[in-house]
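COMPLEX REQUEST
Ligand: 2-phosphoglycolic acid
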Amino acid sequence: MRKQIVAGNWKMNNDYVDSELLVSKLLEQHIHSQTEVIIAPPFTSLLCSSNSLKGSQITVAAQNMHFAENGAYTGEISAGMLKSIGVETVILGHSERRAYFNETDAILAKKVDSALRNSMRIIFCFGEELTDRKSGNEQAIVGSQIKNALFHLPASEWEHVVLAYEPVWAIGTGETASPEQAQDMHAFIRKTVENKYSSELADEVSILYGGSVKPANAKEIFSKADVDGGLIGGAALDVAQFRSIINAF
Ligand code: PGA
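STATUS: Structure written out below.
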């Protein structure tokens, strides 16, 4: 059975003090025990957050990492460094990384390999822009993003991969894909994975939806057959909203 996951991407929000506060409030919430909950604070808050969350059902993920193991890459963080502070999961390919930091499919494929070499789990993000959707190219774009960064992997590595479909036009805009649009794309994604690997493998991969998920729309989106959870941005910064999104399953 594939996992239900709700992950909160804090982006560049919350300093050390704010992070401790938000984590302590999260720990007071009553959350659905069948749902895996992940938060992705900024690098500077990963260690304090994971220490505070020990023994709870919530774990932490990094928002990014470099593909090299170490070396002259000023300002970067490697998979090994994340592992050394107990971080087991990393978000890769977020559209903001692609757009503002020029992360291409080729770079992302290298990051994927580095994460897996270091026994990390990946939440791999992808999604089309508004112009792609308007021109009817959304499936072609999404299909190529997945293929270019992930299809070199052997089937055995896929147990460490979670997919996150995030249409760029829905991120931080308040505009969400309709539950039907999300379901159609998630079914296409699962089929794409099935065609390359097998139906058993495709059936086991969790596919999250991201893009303006809020308490008001989470239940309907999560009720769709191929939607296995959400990657939450803005609403993950508010404890009450994040809790009700988790409990929307
Ligand atoms: P949003 O962000 O929920 O604020 O739209 C989602 C994301 O970027 O993962």
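REMARKS: The pocket of 2-phosphoglycolic acid is lined by residues 9, 166, 171-172, 210-213, 231-235 (CB under 6 Å). The mean pLDDT is 96.
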